[in-house]
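Two entries, shown back to back:
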Amino acid sequence: MDNTNELRSKDYLDVLMWLETASEDVIAGAFWMATGTVKQDLRIGIQSMMDSDRPALASFFPELVISPLCLDDLPARFSECVRPMETLKNSLSMRASDPMYPLKGSGSISAAIHNLKIQGKISLSQSVLLHAELAAIKTK
């Protein structure tokens, strides 16, 4: 009898249990040091966690987000984002010549991202990445 899959399942469950409580820094260190099946288990586990219990892991592992989105993708995929993105882009272009010009549209975009997440149109990890991108724009 081949119990390889049985052992793999137990190992993977152990990884999931560890991922529930380990700090993001410890998880990142373990992921970058791991190889082979351990790395594969960590990758799958991190992807599972970032779309369930630990969406903040998407900030630490953006390359592991399944179907990542950026703000520029939103208007083409979701009509409710067209107007807020236009407002945001217009205010960003105005800020280029007048740094004191207020940033407009960011609140509407944030609300739209939240609504898309609640409606199940985007995943938790996608919303984390989008909010992080929006935050980076706001701090410029």
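entry 2 starts here
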Amino acid sequence: MPTVPASISNARDYRHILGVRFFAGDARAAVERGLQGGLVVVPAAPALMELDRDHDYRQALLESDLALTDSGYMVLLWNFLMQDRVHRVSGLEYLTLLLRQPEFREPGSTLWVMPSTAALNRNMEWLKSKGYAADPEDFYVAPKYPAGSVADPELLDLIHSRSPRHVIIGIGGGVQEKLGLYLKRHCKPVPSIHCIGAAIGFLTGDQVRIPMWADQWVLGWLFRCVSNPGRFVPRYTRALKLAFVLWRYRDDMPDWTS
């Protein structure tokens, strides 16, 4: 793996929040780092509530090479409690900038891991309409993984046979990170593994479309709640408890490695 440039490896570009080393720089620097290879995770507030209960998810975040501050709620709370100025880098902003890189238009450079055949087809058609190289063999439909640790030898064999530079995982948060960690541990060499969740769906229409202005103003949660209140209102309501967790650990972050 190439050496990380000094401009994006400086300690001041990171913050330990809830024991996880989050990148605190801007989106362009995050993409520069993500192109270097390794595991990129984009944890949302609801998933962060599982850190103390889900060992495998926690381990994926701890072993990630780049953890993005996708949760605007977490960033707002952290900056208020700590009088800090951490940047928010959303998964949507990261993916949008990532796809501007010329290498993503090269045949065979990217393998997309999708949650369903319907999502695969919609994603493939959208990519083709934007001028990207996207053929059926560039996609993989993930099975329903059981709770706990995640392993997928079939996907691993596919990566070894195709040797993509990038693996973009667009399945549910809390699961995709575990899959990403499995791939990081077993792929030789390790590609860039981007766990971007629903971000691609916001562009293709597989999820509710979120304009960039709404994403920048941290209103993506509102668009999702309006589109499917039964699913997302309870999810984001539970995430409100993150305020109490951050308050508790505002001065002494938990040491999950002990």
